[in-house]
Amino acid sequence: MLLRAGEPDEASANLPAARQTKLVELVLQRGQVSAGELVSLFGVSRDTIRRDLTLLEERGLLVRTHGGAVPRERLVTSSLTTLDSRMNRHRHAKERIGRAAARLIRDRETLMLNGGSSIACFADAIRDLRDLTIVTNSVHIPTLLPDAAVRAVYVLGGTYIASSKVMVGFAGFAAMPQISVDTAVIGVSGLSAKGCSISKLEEATATKEMMAACERTILLADSSKFDIQAFALVADFDRVEYLVTDAQPAGELAAALEEAGVKIVVAS
User: Fold this and answer.
1) What CA–CA distance (Å, rounded) separates 161 from 28?
2) In contact, 230 and 199? CB cutoff 8 Å
3) What are phi and psi of 171, to 5 degrees?
4) Between the N and C ends of the chain, which has fewer C-beta atoms within 10 Å?
5) What is the rounded distance in angstroms from the CA atom of residue 230 to the CA atom of residue 196?
6) How distant, in Å, are the alpha carbons of 87, 177, 188, 213, 240 from that of 173?
7) What gap in Å lies between CA 162 and CA 204, rounded to an integer?
8) What is the mean pLDDT for each group of 10 consecutive residues in the chain (268 residues)?
Protein backbone atom coordinates (compact mmCIF):
# COMPACT_ATOMS: atom_id res chain seq x y z
CA MET A 1 0.00 0.00 0.00
CA LEU A 2 1.40 3.40 -0.96
CA LEU A 3 2.06 6.02 1.68
CA ARG A 4 0.20 9.16 0.58
CA ALA A 5 0.35 11.38 3.64
CA GLY A 6 1.47 14.83 2.61
CA GLU A 7 1.32 13.91 -1.08
CA PRO A 8 1.86 16.96 -3.34
CA ASP A 9 -0.79 17.99 -5.85
CA GLU A 10 -0.55 16.62 -9.38
CA ALA A 11 1.09 19.70 -10.91
CA SER A 12 3.84 20.07 -8.32
CA ALA A 13 4.46 16.31 -8.22
CA ASN A 14 5.42 16.38 -11.87
CA LEU A 15 7.97 19.16 -11.44
CA PRO A 16 11.35 17.38 -11.25
CA ALA A 17 12.62 19.17 -8.13
CA ALA A 18 9.36 18.72 -6.18
CA ARG A 19 9.04 15.10 -7.30
CA GLN A 20 12.60 14.25 -6.33
CA THR A 21 12.23 15.92 -2.94
CA LYS A 22 9.08 13.94 -2.21
CA LEU A 23 10.75 10.78 -3.49
CA VAL A 24 13.58 11.14 -0.97
CA GLU A 25 11.05 11.81 1.81
CA LEU A 26 9.16 8.62 0.93
CA VAL A 27 12.34 6.53 0.97
CA LEU A 28 13.27 7.90 4.40
CA GLN A 29 9.74 7.39 5.79
CA ARG A 30 9.20 3.87 4.47
CA GLY A 31 12.75 2.52 4.50
CA GLN A 32 12.22 1.02 1.03
CA VAL A 33 10.20 1.86 -2.08
CA SER A 34 9.84 0.12 -5.41
CA ALA A 35 10.04 1.76 -8.82
CA GLY A 36 6.54 0.52 -9.61
CA GLU A 37 5.10 2.28 -6.57
CA LEU A 38 6.85 5.52 -7.52
CA VAL A 39 5.52 5.33 -11.07
CA SER A 40 1.96 4.97 -9.75
CA LEU A 41 2.37 7.66 -7.11
CA PHE A 42 3.86 10.38 -9.33
CA GLY A 43 2.15 9.48 -12.59
CA VAL A 44 5.36 9.48 -14.62
CA SER A 45 7.12 6.84 -16.69
CA ARG A 46 9.44 4.17 -15.31
CA ASP A 47 12.31 5.76 -17.27
CA THR A 48 11.68 9.05 -15.48
CA ILE A 49 11.77 7.34 -12.10
CA ARG A 50 14.99 5.56 -13.05
CA ARG A 51 16.58 8.88 -13.98
CA ASP A 52 15.40 10.40 -10.69
CA LEU A 53 16.86 7.51 -8.70
CA THR A 54 20.15 7.68 -10.55
CA LEU A 55 20.45 11.42 -9.95
CA LEU A 56 19.52 11.16 -6.27
CA GLU A 57 22.01 8.32 -5.76
CA GLU A 58 24.75 10.41 -7.39
CA ARG A 59 23.91 13.19 -4.90
CA GLY A 60 24.24 10.74 -2.02
CA LEU A 61 20.60 11.03 -0.96
CA LEU A 62 19.60 7.37 -1.39
CA VAL A 63 20.83 4.03 -2.69
CA ARG A 64 19.32 2.30 -5.71
CA THR A 65 18.43 -1.36 -5.35
CA HIS A 66 17.08 -3.94 -7.76
CA GLY A 67 13.67 -2.46 -8.51
CA GLY A 68 13.67 0.52 -6.17
CA ALA A 69 15.61 2.44 -3.53
CA VAL A 70 16.53 2.45 0.18
CA PRO A 71 17.95 5.17 2.45
CA ARG A 72 21.70 5.59 2.21
CA GLU A 73 22.19 4.46 5.81
CA ARG A 74 20.80 1.04 4.87
CA LEU A 75 23.55 0.42 2.31
CA VAL A 76 25.47 -2.68 3.36
CA THR A 77 29.19 -2.33 2.68
CA SER A 78 32.39 -3.61 4.21
CA SER A 79 32.26 -0.93 6.92
CA LEU A 80 33.77 -1.81 10.27
CA THR A 81 30.62 -2.32 12.32
CA THR A 82 31.17 -4.61 15.28
CA LEU A 83 29.12 -7.61 16.27
CA ASP A 84 28.22 -5.91 19.56
CA SER A 85 26.74 -2.90 17.74
CA ARG A 86 24.83 -5.11 15.31
CA MET A 87 23.29 -7.07 18.18
CA ASN A 88 21.24 -4.02 19.17
CA ARG A 89 19.83 -3.36 15.70
CA HIS A 90 16.37 -4.87 15.18
CA ARG A 91 16.96 -6.90 18.33
CA HIS A 92 13.36 -8.00 18.91
CA ALA A 93 12.95 -9.12 15.29
CA LYS A 94 16.15 -11.14 15.50
CA GLU A 95 15.01 -12.81 18.72
CA ARG A 96 11.73 -13.84 17.06
CA ILE A 97 13.65 -15.12 14.05
CA GLY A 98 15.97 -17.12 16.29
CA ARG A 99 13.06 -18.81 18.05
CA ALA A 100 11.29 -19.60 14.76
CA ALA A 101 14.48 -21.09 13.29
CA ALA A 102 15.02 -23.25 16.37
CA ARG A 103 11.67 -24.90 15.70
CA LEU A 104 13.05 -26.17 12.38
CA ILE A 105 15.82 -28.12 14.14
CA ARG A 106 15.52 -31.65 15.52
CA ASP A 107 17.27 -33.27 18.47
CA ARG A 108 20.65 -34.90 17.66
CA GLU A 109 21.25 -32.83 14.52
CA THR A 110 24.70 -31.58 13.56
CA LEU A 111 24.60 -27.86 12.82
CA MET A 112 26.99 -25.54 11.01
CA LEU A 113 26.75 -21.96 12.30
CA ASN A 114 28.52 -18.86 11.08
CA GLY A 115 28.79 -15.68 13.15
CA GLY A 116 26.47 -12.71 13.40
CA SER A 117 23.78 -11.22 15.56
CA SER A 118 20.92 -13.32 14.18
CA ILE A 119 22.90 -16.51 14.78
CA ALA A 120 23.58 -15.34 18.34
CA CYS A 121 19.82 -15.09 18.91
CA PHE A 122 19.37 -18.54 17.37
CA ALA A 123 22.03 -19.99 19.69
CA ASP A 124 20.12 -18.69 22.68
CA ALA A 125 16.84 -20.16 21.35
CA ILE A 126 17.89 -23.83 21.08
CA ARG A 127 17.77 -24.50 24.83
CA ASP A 128 14.86 -26.96 24.52
CA LEU A 129 16.74 -29.18 22.05
CA ARG A 130 19.11 -31.99 23.02
CA ASP A 131 22.27 -33.76 21.80
CA LEU A 132 23.21 -31.19 19.17
CA THR A 133 26.65 -31.15 17.62
CA ILE A 134 27.78 -27.66 16.64
CA VAL A 135 30.44 -26.73 14.10
CA THR A 136 31.18 -23.01 13.85
CA ASN A 137 33.80 -20.51 12.78
CA SER A 138 32.66 -18.08 15.48
CA VAL A 139 34.50 -17.73 18.77
CA HIS A 140 31.48 -15.90 20.21
CA ILE A 141 28.70 -18.38 19.47
CA PRO A 142 30.11 -21.20 21.68
CA THR A 143 29.81 -18.93 24.72
CA LEU A 144 26.06 -18.54 24.07
CA LEU A 145 25.13 -22.18 23.51
CA PRO A 146 22.99 -23.74 26.29
CA ASP A 147 24.96 -26.56 27.94
CA ALA A 148 21.93 -28.85 28.16
CA ALA A 149 21.30 -28.63 24.40
CA VAL A 150 24.78 -29.35 23.12
CA ARG A 151 26.74 -32.58 23.05
CA ALA A 152 29.87 -31.27 21.31
CA VAL A 153 31.18 -28.01 19.83
CA TYR A 154 33.87 -27.78 17.14
CA VAL A 155 35.41 -24.38 16.36
CA LEU A 156 37.04 -24.00 12.95
CA GLY A 157 40.42 -22.32 12.92
CA GLY A 158 41.89 -19.66 10.66
CA THR A 159 42.49 -15.92 10.72
CA TYR A 160 40.56 -13.98 13.35
CA ILE A 161 38.28 -11.08 12.29
CA ALA A 162 37.74 -9.02 15.42
CA SER A 163 34.70 -7.03 14.22
CA SER A 164 32.71 -10.23 13.61
CA LYS A 165 34.43 -12.51 16.16
CA VAL A 166 34.88 -15.24 13.55
CA MET A 167 37.72 -17.28 12.09
CA VAL A 168 38.21 -17.43 8.33
CA GLY A 169 40.71 -19.07 6.01
CA PHE A 170 41.81 -22.45 4.77
CA ALA A 171 43.03 -23.77 8.13
CA GLY A 172 39.51 -24.28 9.40
CA PHE A 173 38.11 -25.88 6.29
CA ALA A 174 40.71 -28.55 5.66
CA ALA A 175 38.59 -30.97 7.71
CA MET A 176 35.36 -30.19 5.86
CA PRO A 177 35.41 -33.18 3.44
CA GLN A 178 35.75 -35.52 6.43
CA ILE A 179 32.62 -34.42 8.29
CA SER A 180 28.91 -34.82 7.67
CA VAL A 181 26.67 -31.94 8.71
CA ASP A 182 22.88 -31.91 8.64
CA THR A 183 21.99 -28.22 8.59
CA ALA A 184 23.75 -24.91 8.02
CA VAL A 185 22.11 -22.03 9.90
CA ILE A 186 23.49 -18.92 8.29
CA GLY A 187 23.24 -15.20 8.93
CA VAL A 188 23.93 -12.80 6.06
CA SER A 189 24.31 -9.07 5.43
CA GLY A 190 21.97 -8.79 2.48
CA LEU A 191 19.39 -10.55 0.34
CA SER A 192 18.73 -9.56 -3.26
CA ALA A 193 17.42 -11.22 -6.40
CA LYS A 194 20.98 -12.43 -7.03
CA GLY A 195 21.16 -14.32 -3.72
CA CYS A 196 22.60 -13.86 -0.25
CA SER A 197 25.67 -11.75 0.45
CA ILE A 198 28.05 -10.70 3.22
CA SER A 199 29.97 -7.45 3.59
CA LYS A 200 33.43 -9.03 4.01
CA LEU A 201 34.91 -11.15 1.25
CA GLU A 202 36.69 -13.55 3.62
CA GLU A 203 33.51 -14.25 5.58
CA ALA A 204 31.52 -14.75 2.39
CA THR A 205 34.05 -17.32 1.14
CA ALA A 206 34.00 -19.17 4.45
CA THR A 207 30.20 -19.14 4.60
CA LYS A 208 29.93 -20.53 1.07
CA GLU A 209 32.12 -23.48 2.05
CA MET A 210 30.09 -24.04 5.20
CA MET A 211 26.87 -24.20 3.21
CA ALA A 212 28.42 -26.62 0.71
CA ALA A 213 29.27 -29.06 3.53
CA CYS A 214 25.64 -29.38 4.70
CA GLU A 215 22.55 -31.25 3.59
CA ARG A 216 20.33 -28.18 3.89
CA THR A 217 20.64 -24.46 4.61
CA ILE A 218 18.45 -22.19 6.72
CA LEU A 219 19.01 -18.46 6.18
CA LEU A 220 18.26 -16.00 8.98
CA ALA A 221 17.69 -12.38 7.95
CA ASP A 222 15.45 -9.62 9.25
CA SER A 223 13.64 -7.45 6.72
CA SER A 224 16.22 -4.65 6.92
CA LYS A 225 18.43 -6.95 4.80
CA PHE A 226 15.87 -7.19 1.95
CA ASP A 227 16.94 -5.84 -1.46
CA ILE A 228 20.47 -5.30 -0.20
CA GLN A 229 23.41 -6.64 -2.14
CA ALA A 230 26.46 -6.57 0.11
CA PHE A 231 30.04 -6.57 -1.11
CA ALA A 232 30.53 -10.31 -1.60
CA LEU A 233 27.95 -12.76 -2.94
CA VAL A 234 27.80 -16.01 -0.95
CA ALA A 235 25.40 -18.07 -3.06
CA ASP A 236 22.17 -17.94 -5.00
CA PHE A 237 19.02 -19.36 -3.40
CA ASP A 238 19.19 -22.81 -5.01
CA ARG A 239 21.07 -24.16 -1.98
CA VAL A 240 18.61 -22.68 0.52
CA GLU A 241 15.66 -24.62 1.96
CA TYR A 242 14.30 -22.01 4.41
CA LEU A 243 14.44 -18.26 4.88
CA VAL A 244 13.40 -17.26 8.39
CA THR A 245 12.57 -13.57 8.62
CA ASP A 246 10.20 -11.06 10.21
CA ALA A 247 8.28 -9.91 7.11
CA GLN A 248 7.19 -11.28 3.77
CA PRO A 249 9.62 -10.37 0.95
CA ALA A 250 8.22 -8.61 -2.12
CA GLY A 251 9.15 -7.73 -5.67
CA GLU A 252 12.17 -9.24 -7.40
CA LEU A 253 13.48 -10.75 -4.17
CA ALA A 254 10.21 -12.62 -3.59
CA ALA A 255 10.24 -13.84 -7.19
CA ALA A 256 13.80 -15.14 -6.89
CA LEU A 257 13.01 -16.97 -3.67
CA GLU A 258 9.89 -18.53 -5.17
CA GLU A 259 11.74 -19.62 -8.30
CA ALA A 260 14.37 -21.35 -6.16
CA GLY A 261 11.70 -23.09 -4.07
CA VAL A 262 12.75 -21.45 -0.80
CA LYS A 263 10.25 -21.92 2.03
CA ILE A 264 9.67 -18.63 3.85
CA VAL A 265 8.96 -18.65 7.59
CA VAL A 266 7.76 -15.29 8.92
CA ALA A 267 8.41 -15.15 12.67
CA SER A 268 5.46 -13.80 14.61
Assistant:
1) 32
2) yes
3) -60, -40
4) N
5) 8
6) 27, 8, 19, 10, 21
7) 16
8) 38 69 84 86 91 84 78 51 52 93 98 92 96 92 93 84 68 62 95 92 88 95 89 92 96 95 95
